[in-house]
Amino acid sequence: MARRATNNPRQLREKGCGCKECIEEYPPEKYGARKSRRDCIGSWQARYRTPDGKQPGPTFPTYTEAKAHLDKVRTQVREGTYQDPKRGAITVDDWYAIWWPTVKVTSITTKNRKLSAWTVHVQPKWGKRKLNSITWMQVQDWITNEVRGHATQKKVLELLRHMMVAALRDRRISVNPCIDIEVSPAPARHPDEMIPPTAAQCDLIREHLTDYYMPLVVFAEETGMRWGEYTGLRACNLNLESATVKVKEVLIDDRGKIRRKMAPKSRAGFRTVPLTPAAMAAAQAMLDKWAPATTESPIGDGEDLHVEELVFRGPQSGPLTRPNFRRHWIPAIKAAGLARLVKNEESGRTEFWPRVHDLRHTFATRLKDAGVPEKDVQVIMGHERGGRVTWLYQHAGTELVEEVRAALVKGRPLRAVS
């Protein structure tokens, strides 16, 4: 074993010092005269060998500080817990460039959400900061006062936390500043704001909708499927003889570009949906219109849509998109006298009610009113949690209020007490 150096830590020579060693290193003839002194004022350098073979030499004002640091680092090297401070001194921008290619994201929508959180929130705030300079209090203040909305706070914090966890595992930082960060509570909404359109209201909307989109809306109302599920429905997955639809893939909007996605929203999304006579008639109308191919093309990377297989398409035979459909949906709900602007308290944005997605809520409410068990509703709707169906879709309307009122009025009569 190599012998340990006896001059470690060592004192560095100082141009402004007048001790004997410093005058010899920096002669007065070249560096100017200095007052003679016995003790050197130079800093102390602690040298050590890192596990990768490098030899750093940080400096300290006193011998005691340098010696303490040297003993601490030697212990960390022996125990395998040493972290090079320079590894944590890179900027968050540089760390993101290293970390992001290692992230495995199978869903395009999830990938786009993370990219949006990075470009809109994380990068502008922390991109130029060094990894090891970010503190817990700074992150908490940012989440509380600069990031708006419960859902946005959760998504943004999730991304930054994953980046910091990776930096911690890579031994670039010693503490994750995103641990135990509190986000604002989700805003409460009055039940009246969550009630979906009734059957009568849906009929009224269809009366003012253009004829071409009538089958699409009827099919959505009668099946409770998601937008991407029925716009991505292919003839090979539609069976009019058994009156069923197999949900096997979806169409998604990848930053303005329509793509095929191999799986629905979750594993529970793979399901068979029964068709009512009205849904079958709507599907048959589109089959007669476009005569889609019954082949089952491979999805591949999602680039080739194979529009010729789609049951529901746009008027120009292309894939249906939300922006194009909204140009017909908004005028229809306005003409029906149902449209109202609803403000999202989290984002501050406003949108029209009802949305076409609210037809899914209407469908779930119909199942509840028909007495379909919750677990069966869960299967048909394609949800992994039955409880979510209860609180999100099965809204309590005026019927429940009247039922409770009737139960109270017909309940125990009042008695006069003497």
From TrEMBL:
Q: Which InterPro entries match?
A: DNA_brk_join_enz, Integrase-like_cat_sf, Integrase_catalytic, Integrase_recombinase_N, Tyrosine_recombinase_XerCD
| This protein's UniProt keywords | DNA recombination, DNA-binding
UniProt entry tagged with the keyword Iron = no
Q: Which domain of life is it from?
A: Bacteria
One Pfam entry name: Phage_integrase
List, alphabetically, the Gene3D superfamilies matched.
1.10.150.130, Intergrase catalytic core
Q: Where does the record place the Tyr recombinase domain?
A: 189-406
The text of the family note is: Belongs to the 'phage' integrase family.
- Please report the name of this protein according to its UniProt entry: Tyrosine-type recombinase/integrase
What is the native source organism of this protein? Streptomyces flavovirens
